[in-house]
Amino acid sequence: MSNFKDILNKDNLTKQDLVCMLNAEGKNRDLLHRKSKEITKKFTTNKVYLRGLIEYSNVCVKDCLYCGIRKSNTQQKRYTISDSEVLNCAQYALENNYGSIVLQAGERTDKPFISKITTLLNEINKLSKGKLGITISLGEQTLEVYKEWFDAGAHRYLLRIETSNSELYKNLHPKNRMHNFQHRIDALNNIRLAGFKLGTGVMIGLPNQTIENLADDLLFMKAMNVDMVGMGPYIEHQHTPLFNDKNLLASKQKRLALSYNMIACLRILMKDINIAATTALQAIDNFGREKAIKIGANVLMPNITPGSFRDNYKLYEDKPCTNENASDCNTCIDVRMNMIGSEVGYNEWGDSKHFFKNKKQLSSS
Ligand code: SAH
């Protein structure tokens, strides 16, 4: 077996290499994280980009077995933010030089919802005169809907595959047409076809998920040639069916450590993509997102959802900052980024370099 350093320097990482890297502890883990940081400095702009996160609605037609806002969780109060409040959030992001926002919600595919999003996207663009970059994360839709939203001015789309293993996927979802693995893959392809920069991601440390599964997840992201990734630890929610499997879980600290290794491996595998330091990391460790940035993430999504709604967008337990408002976030970002010596790309969209390189290659071939 090759020496760990040799593996880190290989050009074509195999599944076996990735398994070895994901398992790294102690000195090897330090080497892995250092290599990832080196690559981040060399292949990204080496700035951290902000996306003000608006958790638009927790109404969801889906029933994913792990998710706190699943349709069948009747203990969850439901909300949808009013248009004017969404526009206030966008204005806030603009005034605070965030560069971009993310509009995320539970999944709905009805016409009024689709049109509402189109209107909001148009309004946000009007308000910012096209200055704010817009990522949306609104689940599986048809190609026509993706095109409509792209034409309305969103340009990045985040749809996590959750796990690239179809068997595990089946076990995490009700067995019906609405929760179909192949449909989700088709949706990812359609998002790209519609013109979006494509983002996906997975949950890390799910019940019955193996290190081999996670290595496959990384290879899946590479094969899909995604432009951005958001992934983080799975965190159990007591009002979901998957909570019954909680005795199969590794400790939260182990899931966190594995998430850091996933970020490092992904950075080494896909050097110039955008990788988000996700909120779920912060749910386990107050400085989880900063640690992720130190390792190789380069996107931060400060929550700018009005404080009164935040407590209801509970995908998992211990979700941080639910008792705060956007302005608390703002002071917090500067302090936190200064602490780890990272430069923030204020007023920039900060799209992944990967997307532009890809486009160039496609147009010259
Ligand atoms: N409806 C949108 C996004 C809403 S949920 C969509 O379908 O893409 C956003 C993400 O939260 C999900 O993709 C999932 O990866 C994550 N999530 C949900 N429940 C979680 C849990 N219990 N622990 C960690 N992450 C969770």
List the helices and strands and how they pair.
Elements: H1 4-8, H2 15-22, H3 26-43, E1 47-57, H4 83-95, E2 99-105, H5 111-128, E3 133-137, H6 143-151, E4 156-158, H7 166-171, H8 181-194, E5 197-200, E6 203-204, H9 211-224, E7 228-233, H10 252-269, E8 274-277, H11 279-284, H12 288-295, E9 299-300, H13 307-310, H14 326-339, E10 343-344, H15 353-364
Parallel strand pairs: 1-2, 1-9, 1-10, 2-3, 3-4, 4-5, 5-7, 6-7, 7-8, 8-9
Helix pairs in contact: 2-9, 3-10, 4-5, 6-8, 9-10, 10-12
Bound molecules: S-adenosyl-L-homocysteine.
Key features?
365 residues; alpha/beta; 15 helices; binds S-adenosyl-L-homocysteine
Can you put this structure into words, describing what you see?
There is one protein chain. The protein is an alpha/beta fold. It has one domain: Alpha-Beta Barrel (TIM Barrel), CATH 3.20.20. 46% of the residues lie in helices and 13% in strands. The protein has 15 helices and ten strands. An eight-stranded parallel beta barrel has the order 1-2-3-4-5-7-8-9, surrounded by five helices. Helix 4 links the parallel strand 1 and strand 2. The two termini are 38 Å apart. The structure holds S-adenosyl-L-homocysteine. The site of S-adenosyl-L-homocysteine (SAH) has 17 residues, from loops.
**N-to-C series of helices and strands:** HHHEHEHEHEHHEEHEHEHHEHHEH
Low-confidence segments = none
At CATH level 3, the topology is TIM Barrel
Helix percent band: 40-55%
